[in-house]
Design a protein that fits this description.
The chain is α/β, with parallel strands linked by helices and 289 residues long. The strands form two sheets. The chain has an eight-stranded mixed beta sheet, sandwiched between helices. The chain has a four-stranded antiparallel beta sheet with strand order 1-2-3-4, covered by helices on one side. The longest helix has 13 residues. It is globular, with a radius of gyration of 18 Å. About 3% of the residues have low confidence.
């Protein structure tokens, strides 16, 4: 799930496409400034943004942050294997295929009707090695071979909430099984207010991985508004300085926490397990207006 777009202007000749899908009412809304770009909304909440003419263009701030992760997970241009939990409009899979040709990618998307809508109106390049499987993200992850992925990206929302079973230590054990040595895990989550959910996710990741970093809008991290946060984890060193530089120089600058500041931020939060997990908080009314 995303949040706010960056631009505005006059709509071109294209018309919006709306259709019922498994998860609600989907809408593909044409961008007002870019002639081949579309925003995917589900029940009015922005989910994905795709520019068919330029798959390297990432509009939503959290997707730009995940784009930096994709850029930094391996030397520039080197093909990688990526598991996407949550497909949506396949924005990040398109970005990876565009910036890292010959990469092999598999996405797991529970909403098969949404996948059909996206394929019909936002077709993939036939040369891209992107496979989309229908089904629950955790069940789908269990079908991946051990050590298959250089990067696992979780961006899964049921309605506007991350499902509880994708927030736990047991889930992260499955992520670790699928990651190749040196592989990274990245997750997009949302929270606001006291940030109890986010702190619990940090504690759970720090228990599972040697290195963890957090990127988000400073206003979100201060609890001043509800929004997205990107969590990044690995067993080896993360390029924190370069990641921080890129996030800080985005059009909508963010903040990166790592090491002692991140430990202090999550102090007192318990590791989340299958027995204790709850979904992420419901966004307040009018969050995405």
């Amino acid at each position: 799930m995303a949040g706010r777009r960056q631009g505005g202007g006059r709509t071109r000749d294209r018309e919006a496409v709306s259709a019922p899908v498994d998860g609600g009412q989907a809408e593909l809304r044409p961008d007002r400034e870019r002639p081949q770009a579309w925003t995917l909304l589900l029940d009015g909440a922005p989910q994905s943004y795709v520019d068919l003419a330029d798959p390297g263009h990432l509009d939503f701030p959290y997707q730009r942050t995940l784009g930096h992760v994709i850029d930094l997970v391996a030397p520039a241009g080197r093909p990688v294997r990526v598991a996407h939990l949550g497909g949506g409009a396949l924005t990040l899979a398109r970005y990876t295929a565009h910036t890292r040709p010959r990469s092999t990618q598999q996405a797991v998307e529970a909403d098969t009707q949404l996948t059909e809508l996206v394929r019909a109106h936002l077709p993939l390049d036939r040369t891209w090695r992107i496979k989309v499987r229908g089904g629950d993200a955790r069940a789908g992850l269990a079908k991946f071979p051990e050590g298959w992925a250089d990067l696992v990206i979780a961006d899964v929302f049921a309605g506007a909430r991350t499902p509880a079973h994708l927030t736990t230590a047991e889930f992260l054990a499955e992520v670790r099984r699928v990651l190749a040595p040196g592989g990274w895990y990245a997750a997009n989550v949302t929270d606001g207010g006291p940030l109890a959910f986010l702190r619990g996710q940090i504690a759970t990741l720090r228990d599972a991985f040697a290195e963890v970093a957090l990127a988000a809008d400073p206003a979100v991290l201060r609890g001043r508004r509800f929004g997205n946060a990107v969590l990044l984890a690995a067993d080896g060193p993360l390029p924190v300085s370069e990641f921080t530089r890129r996030v800080a120089t985005d059009p909508h600058p963010g903040r990166v926490d790592h090491g002692r500041p991140l430990a202090d931020f999550a102090a007192g939060a318990a590791v989340v397990t299958d027995a204790t997990a709850t979904p992420s908080p419901q966004p307040p009314a009018r969050t995405f207006d």
